[in-house]
Write a structure and sequence with these properties.
Immunoglobulin-like, binds arginine, four-stranded mixed beta sheet, binds zinc ion
């Protein structure tokens, strides 16, 4: 199983019992409006309305595209950045926020005009010269520089631009994107990206999507990456280091780019060799792979302690084992292509990716998913596994803990047993296909499962994802 390797913190003893099935589907629009009373006026809200990360994302606009131009000096750890966002106003805006933590902003323009700006914690507050009309497309350019520093998440882990001995490990779940570029840092707002990074010659800068080109001059190499399909900010990377690179195109036209820290190369090779077959197997189970590019970034970053499913190209803090590769690959469907609207729904990412590991084992000569379920069910009621309801981690400090991963996967095994294999795999494919390049909520998943099975699954989901404590029967 792939769990973040930091110590899970203990759960408070008060556990909330809430019927997940009764939860009102959370519309993105409602989130934006609910975020702050100011959202009703002409000032964009400071957050997207996520109860776990109240300042994450912003109200009043939708980003269509990010163009990032970065220069990173691995010696001084200095970053020079320019971010151009193309966005559309969803309300009249006299002022709006971007998320950015640390770094020094040297200029902001909106359209052709210089805009006023100030910093307020993680908010970069922008006042354009002219108010933006509702529906107006606009372009924001932010220039900035400084030494990026990671954030410490509520669970104690490092997140964002994390320096390494030869560059930086760059990941952003759930919050770290704002440590290296200004944006709308919540998964409700997905956009396409062009990421251009210049690093000292001899280092590589590896990002999402397809490598458009690479050029070296005067001792510096520029890498130009393009992520065409919509991506949540937390899935962006620009990992820098000394890497051995391997590139090829699969028979079905998938562009694969693997970058491996030489210190991890021997351990990583046999696992990375399986990437095409893992993606082919996952495509046969979940439906077509959602992106045109694939690959891996295997860094040597022991201080990180986790891997992340960065879009098209997961980033690993060390050579992954096969289960971890299967897990991060499955996130390309569940989490990356079908995204969360609220961090509370994190089991839709982690429970599904964990279940993919169980399925892979089952279909490759190992124990059945039911056996994995049974072994987990045998754990005593006092085990951390039962500490809280997978669909209700309570706050941002528990979103990467065992109930989300393992019990979330157990819920899928219960669903499979209740509806039978043909319907179950049909549900997984319909989920990935129907919400491709978009979003999905827990309530929508339950409705889809009920519709395709013709069964009332309220009690099953209530027990397995909506209730804390060990269920009385497996
Ligand atoms: N989504 C990652 C996984 O596949 C875990 C990321 C953990 N991030 C963190 N800041 N603790 O399991
Ligand atoms: Zn995961």
């Amino acid at each position: 199983m792939t769990l973040p390797r930091q110590q899970p913190s203990r759960r408070p003893t008060v556990l909330r019992r809430e019927a997940v099935v009764a939860a009102v589907p959370v519309a993105v629009a409602a989130l934006l409006v609910a975020a702050s009373p100011a959202a009703a006026g002409t000032v964009g809200a400071a957050g997207a309305g996520d109860p776990y990360f109240t300042l994450a994302g912003n109200g009043g606009y939708d980003v269509r595209h990010y163009a990032l131009t970065l220069g990173y000096d691995t010696g001084t750890r200095h970053l020079d950045g320019k971010t151009v966002l193309t966005a559309r106003a969803t309300q009249r805006l006299t002022r709006f926020d971007l998320d950015l933590k640390g770094l020094k902003v040297t200029g902001v323009t909106v359209g052709h005009h210089k805009a006023a700006f100030r910093r307020d914690g993680q908010e970069l507050v922008v006042t354009p010269r002219h108010a933006l009309r509702k529906g107006q497309e606009f372009r924001v350019t932010v220039t900035y520089r400084g030494t990026p520093k990671p954030v410490t998440d509520p669970d104690g882990s490092l997140d964002g631009w994390i320096p390494t001995d030869d560059g930086a490990f760059v990941a952003g779940e759930p919050q770290g994107a704002m440590t290296w570029f200004p944006g709308n840092n919540h998964p409700t707002d997905k956009a396409s990206y062009d990421i251009t990074i210049t690093v000292p010659e001899g280092r590589a800068a590896v990002s999402n999507g397809v490598l458009l080109g690479q050029r070296t001059s005067h001792g510096r190499t520029t890498f130009r990456w393009r992520q065409t399909e919509p991506m949540a900010a937390y899935l962006a990377t620009a990992t820098v280091g000394k890497f051995k690179v391997e590139q090829f195109t699969t028979p079905d036209g998938l562009r694969v780019y693997n970058a491996v820290d030489p210190r991890e190369a021997t351990a990583a090779a046999p696992v990375l060799k399986k990437l095409p077959s893992v993606l082919a197997w996952e495509s046969s189970v979940f439906g077509p792979y959602p992106f045109r590019a694939a690959g891996s970034i295997v860094d040597h970053a022991p201080q990180v302690g986790y891997a992340l499913e960065t879009q098209t190209r997961p980033v690993y803090d060390r050579a992954p084992d096969l289960s971890t590769l299967v897990h991060e690959s499955a996130h390309q469907w569940f989490g990356d292509s079908v995204s969360l609207t609220t961090w509370k729904d994190i089991w839709l990412n982690e429970g599904f990716a964990t279940y993919a590991e169980w399925l892979y084992t089952e279909q490759h000569g190992g124990k059945s998913a039911q056996k994995t379920f049974d072994a987990l069910y045998a754990r005593p009621a006092s085990d951390d596994l039962w500490a809280f309801a997978p669909a209700d981690p309570g706050d941002g400090s528990h979103i990467f803990e065992t109930p989300v991963y393992a019990r979330g996967a157990m819920a899928l095994q219960k669903l499979r047993a209740a509806v039978g294999d043909p319907v179950f795999f049909g549900i997984l494919r319909a989920w990935a296909g129907g919400h491709r390049d978009g979003h999905g909520t827990t309530a929508q998943f339950i409705r889809l499962s009920e519709r395709l099975s013709g069964k009332d699954l309220g009690a099953l989901f209530h027990t397995w994802i909506g209730t804390a404590g060990k269920p009385s029967s497996p």
